[in-house]
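Work Package 3 (structural annotation) set out to generate three-dimensional models for the target panel prioritized at the project kickoff. During this period the team completed the workflow that converts sequence records into discrete structure tokens, so that structures can be stored uniformly alongside our sequence database. As a representative example, we reproduce one entry of 191 residues exactly as it appears in the project archive.
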Amino acid sequence: MKNIICILFLMVGISLSAQNVAVKTNLLYDVSTTINLGAEIGLSPKWTLDLSANYNGWTFSENKKWKHWLLQPEARYWFCERFNGHFLGAHLLGGVYNVSNWDTDFTLLGTDFGKLKGHRYEGWLAGVGIGYGYHWILARHWSIEAEIGVGYIYTRADKYECPRCGEQLEDNKPHHYVGPTKAAINLIYVF
């Protein structure tokens, strides 16, 4: 039995050492003050698994906040070879947020972002989407990629009267969102 376990660990170690691994940061999230880090591992010549984690814990002037943490795993199929050229992805996303006092007077695909002004929303979200992207090799280890994704998000949030305090106006209200679920310009280091 010990020999079988040793052989299995050896086989897993050999297969992992032969795979490419990349670490990345989404420059669009960096600009929005969201700390983020991603990792991608090759599963086969044309398949990879990507996982990104994002965190924004800041409160801005006038108690504006877009606080959140978000996880977004994605399976990718590469048309040529992994970490090079065009790819399609299927992603999940989930997280928790606390948003208040943003003056964004626009509606996108049935979601009225103007409701953020003068209120605070605390809740969670879960969703699914598909994405398309392209990966450019810059140097031996450095790359950049762009990706856009669309999908569906289900969210539940408590709504509060004002951005700082106030009584709760709505309890655990559900919302369905269809639209963009991913936008990325990633700076990548491939091992």
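DSSP finds two helices and ten strands in the chain.
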